[in-house]
Amino acid sequence: MAKAAQPPPKRKSAGFSRTVKRDAQGQIIPEKKEKSLGAFRPLPAATLANPAFESDGRTVMKLPAFAPKPHLVGVATEFPTLENDPARIYGLPKKMLLEFRILSKPCSVVRNVTVKTAELLDKAKDKSSLETRVVLSGRAGCGKSFLMLQLVEHCILNDWIVIYIPRAVKLVDSTTPYEYDLRTRTYLQPAFAFQTLRRLLAANHAKLSALTTQKKHVFEKREVPLGTNLTDLIGVAMKEPPLAPLILDTVMAELSTQTKSPVLFAVDDFQALYCQSAYRDPHFVPIRPYHLAVPRLIMEYASGKKAFAKGAFVGAITASDTIYKLPLELKDALGLPHEHLPSPYDERSRPLTEYTTGLKPIHVPEQLSVNEAASLFEIWKEDKALTASMYDEVFLSKYTESSGNARDFVWKGLLATLES
């Protein structure tokens, strides 16, 4: 008796050969994607078995501790390892972060402008921040962000309360969740407010624990009595994140009135706060930066609408940003040159002009001096970032090619030798 014909076996499609895993309820279990660790992360020592990676005993740099003192001008110094290290807690600008990942330890060169600006902050620690509101300006790559980090480290070491925002562009580029608040008629940014409070607490825990609220505060159904420790006040936001925007405003108000510790408010990418934001309202109209809660808070302290009883405000502009360029309002306030001859017909925003009142520029030199560049060269040479053996010739050629610009000297000069 003939057997019934069997159907031919089904061919597996090349595009759907992967099996789908399901849980007990039949739901698809998503595959874990490999998480990118970013660039320039150090490899584990166990994986570096090649003799080329063996140490010759000279790889550990020994540098003096950072201090903005005249006798250290032109000297490479290392930042101290602190439990409340602001670079670790608040983060860093991207270029600086990548440099510190390549180097064996975070370090920088003390410059004349470092000493002068640190002396300015030392005089401001007993004065209102109304008297010290400055913006670091200069050519792209001249070292403004490094100078700001040096000031932040200096203030941390001298018992200041430090609020550091290294990438303010993230406040206006529509990467942070936002929601409209009828009470303040602004757009709150709860996620960024929460992270700011968390970092503020981690970087300044000892000093905040010595401060208490000067009055009673009510947050919806939550009441915070008079005399509550500021660490406990921030702890309310840690337990109830939706309250973070309100508590951030309250903490800043409390810091403004206290006189026990001076406060440094440092903001990099400062010019981005005065540009058109990428956020949109329900009608898809761009939201002005001063209608966003956190940018508006920063701009109020920058313009003197709000002030700390003791402290200073320091901003730094990013001249290389092609999307958030330096606006006319800031150029006028800081006396910076215009791309073309200024005209009364150039449109300016009156509210933005008001938020620039009283800002003063601190010009960062466009070029490193020969001594400063030599110290920077020694850092990378000791960390074996150079493949050439004729160091004098390499130094002079790279310094000349970069015209003394700090960023170009490192990225287009010294690190470019790794490609050879």
From TrEMBL:
Can you tell which superkingdom this protein's organism belongs to? Eukaryota
The entry's localization annotation reads: Mitochondrion
Report the GO terms under cellular component: mitochondrial small ribosomal subunit
Gene Ontology MF terms: structural constituent of ribosome
Is Acetylation set as a keyword in this record?
Answer: no
Where mainly located? mitochondrion
UniProt key word NADP: no
Alphabetically list the UniProt keywords. Answer: Mitochondrion, Ribonucleoprotein, Ribosomal protein, Transit peptide
Q: Where is the composition biased (Basic and acidic residues)?
A: 20-35
Location of the region described as Disordered in the Swiss-Prot/TrEMBL record? 1-35
The record, for PANTHER family, names: MITOCHONDRIAL 28S RIBOSOMAL PROTEIN S29, SMALL RIBOSOMAL SUBUNIT PROTEIN MS29
* Family of the protein in this entry: Belongs to the mitochondrion-specific ribosomal protein mS29 family.
Q: What is this protein called?
A: Small ribosomal subunit protein mS29
